[in-house]
Design a protein that fits this description.
Elements lengths: L13 H12 L6 H8 L8 H13 L4 E5 L2 E5 L6 E5 L5 E4 L8 H8 L9 E4 L2 H8 L1
Helix pairs in contact: 1-3, 2-3
Length: 136
């Protein structure tokens, strides 16, 4: 008797590769709509649902990061350790590459009775462009 084993294999596609390449080349933390607009130049037949599905799969595989901002997910193709700044006025997201010392993780682990495997800091405030608008 032959037993068939089924494995969950992530489907490889040119569109997923194009979305990943697009994400890794960007510094602007795009929304799915922004990725869709950019990818349509190369793949005019692609649907927004396909972009959402592939972004979710790329997040699940650890190839990109999803960030919540102003009620809309934004995505980051830089998976190396870094922190983020969110503008509370316009929703812009910026990378913070400076090292920020995170002390007290042992206390947090005790509080959650678990093990922290990664951490990042999210700074919230008003970006320079929005500050300039406020000053005018």
């Amino acid at each position: 008797m032959l037993t068939e084993k089924r494995q969950t294999v992530q489907k490889h596609s040119d569109k997923r590769d194009a979305i990943l390449q697009n994400m890794r080349s960007r510094k602007d933390h795009p929304t799915a709509d922004m990725v869709y607009a950019s990818i349509r130049e190369e793949y005019p037949e692609i649907s927004l649902a396909t972009v959402y599905r592939n972004l979710a799969a790329l997040c699940d595989s650890g190839d990109i990061i999803a960030l919540g901002a102003k009620g809309k997910e934004r995505y980051d193709g830089n998976v190396n350790y870094h922190n983020h700044f969110f503008c509370t006025q316009c929703g812009a997201v910026e990378d913070i590459m400076s090292h920020v010392d995170i002390t007290g993780l042992d206390q947090v682990e005790d509080e959650i009775d678990g093990k922290i495997t990664s951490a990042s800091i999210v700074f919230r405030g008003i970006c320079g462009k929005c500050l300039d608008k406020i000053k005018k």
